[in-house]
Amino acid sequence: MDKKDLRSLTLDKLMVELERFGEKPFRAKQIYSWLHQKHINSFDEMTNLSKELREKLKENYLLKNLKIVEKLVSKEDNTSKYLFETDDGIVIESVLMKYSYGNAVCISSQAGCRMGCTFCASTIDGLERNLLAGEMLAQIYEIQKDSCERVSNVVMMGSGEPLDNYDNAMDFLKIINSKEGLNLSHRHITLSTCGLVDKIYDLSKENLQITLAISLHAPNDEIRQNTMPIARKFDIDKLIKAAKDYANTTKRRVTFEYALINGVNDSIENANELAGRLKGIMCHINLIPVNDVKENNYVRSSEDNIKKFAEALTKKGIETTIRRKLGSDINAACGQLRKRYKDNLKEE
Ligand code: SAH
Asked: Quick check: is 148 catalytic?
């Protein structure tokens, strides 16, 4: 049987596991603290455990650590991009962004992605595998150690679709929020989805205080279906209804992400149609100038167009922000660095 990753276990699960070995619950708390507060990477560093218990842990569990294989620091701003290698040789990426209010880390939830959005680099080679909760956490822990900075915000907006890896994403959220772990408030965590409607309802039921971001990127089904295959499974009305339900249940404002692509979804008619659909929903729109990806021909909207689009939404009472571009000199957009790294390996 495959050994389980110890870092992926919630405290409750860890307690149950240790009970099987006849260990007391406080041992589980000690181990959990080594992993999630002291961020150690080997069993032998758990110095308050007996050698016997450490050996028992080694026999039964693994620590799926991440190794930094490349780090790029933007010259334009304080953004750093990390490429990590997993224990089975898969490469994933994360971004550290420094803001005036604190440090945010953008983590990957899967290696690759199977959602197929036409503008996104993460999906080009499909899904390699789901990441474990412990591998999502390790991205944050390793970045904290490397940068000597405390991470105060987390966005699940790197490679992958977090709701397509639902159970691991939920364990991640439990562990990061636990007071015996990083104790990071759910209010400082954003989960971004391309719109898996059934899973959004499941998430509502969890009633967490995280911010839900929905990648909408279109005002209607016709445009959405051209860029996002998931739109053929769940139509835009169903998606927006699910968003409304999420906001009503959790009392948390939903964010809609909208990447502006020149000539595809950025006309004033598009803005007006979008505003009409979102009327009455507790929400906010984040406009993103689309990042160029080598494999597609999309061009970002002009600054002027982005401003006009934002103004049209604001005029209709929709709260709108334009995302500041970070780290564009280091391929910081979703999946770009990982893709380049993998392509380079192939060429070697
Ligand atoms: N699967 C999730 C989270 C990962 S993508 C989701 O779809 O939301 C994070 C965000 O980056 C999404 O809004 C995604 O649509 C957007 N994105 C992907 N490629 C992009 C690009 N080339 N330019 C701008 N935004 C992009």
From this structure: no
> Which residues have C-beta within 8 Å of that of residue 341, sequence separation ≥ 6?
69, 70, 83, 91
- d(CA 291, CA 282) in angstroms, rounded, equals 28
CATH for 219:
3.20.20.70
Q: Structurally, how many domains does the chain consist of?
A: 2
Range of the domain at 48: 4-62
- pTM for the whole structure: 0.95
Report how far residue 292's alpha carbon sits from residue 277's, in angstroms, rounded to the nearest whole number.
28
Q: Are both 204 and 128 inside the same structural domain?
A: yes
pLDDT of residue 296: 79
Mutate to test the pocket of ligand 1, among 172, 334, 336, 339 (most ligand atoms within 8 A of CB): 334
Low-confidence ranges of the chain (pLDDT < 50): 348
Are 127 and 184 found together in one domain? yes
CA of 13 to the centre of ligand 1 (A): 33
Same domain membership, residue 144 and residue 16: no
Is the distance from the beta carbon of residue 161 to the nearest atom of ligand 1 less than 6 Å? yes
